[in-house]
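Hi all, long-time lurker, first post. I run a small reading group and we've been trying to get comfortable going from sequence to structure in the token notation. Rather than ask abstract questions, I figured I'd post a concrete chain and ask someone more experienced to write out its structure so we can walk through it together at our next meeting. Sequence below, copied exactly:
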Amino acid sequence: MKNKLALFDLDGTLFNTNDVNYYSYKEALNNLGYDLDYEYFCTKCNGRFYKEFLPEITDGKDSTLETIHKQKKELYGKYLDKAKINNHLINIAKHIKDEYYLAVVTTASKKNTMDILKYYKIESLFDLILTHDDITKVKPDPEGFLKAMNYFKIDCYNTIIFEDSKPGIEAARRTNSTVFVIDKF
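-- Answer (accepted) --
Happy to help. Here is the structure in token form:
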């Protein structure tokens, strides 16, 4: 039985999904008469929860936010070819798999998470996949990471977390686990 755990964020860590998310959100926003600038998205929106940044672009009504988010999830698969996989990190995961349980912990939706993992044929690499659909609090709350640790019954001293965003890094640090920051790939 394994006694170590490696947790991986999805967006910005396992994959650079800036373009996937941008084009999905842009099309969904355009469908409702809004526009989205690429640079603005990359600097002000990417890595944030949709309920935090969409009100800054739209009328802010819950119904508008939910319509855009639902359309974005449906459009996501259309743009998967624009993702960039972090091959170095995938190779590390494959190398440590015999000694560590591997889990994805992301605030992305279950649908989008599974779509990209299947598209790049790596979903079977992970022993557990936790998404926004599995938690009640988003990062910087550590709920997702703690839930994965509890699932495997592995403490913070035997857990490593790979993260890229400020909220994700804060959430990872709040678990007292070792944190590896993915800065660029």
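A couple of things your group might point at:
Residues 26 and 36 are 5 Å apart (CA to CA).
The domain at 4-16+84-181 is CATH 3.40.50.1000 (Rossmann fold).
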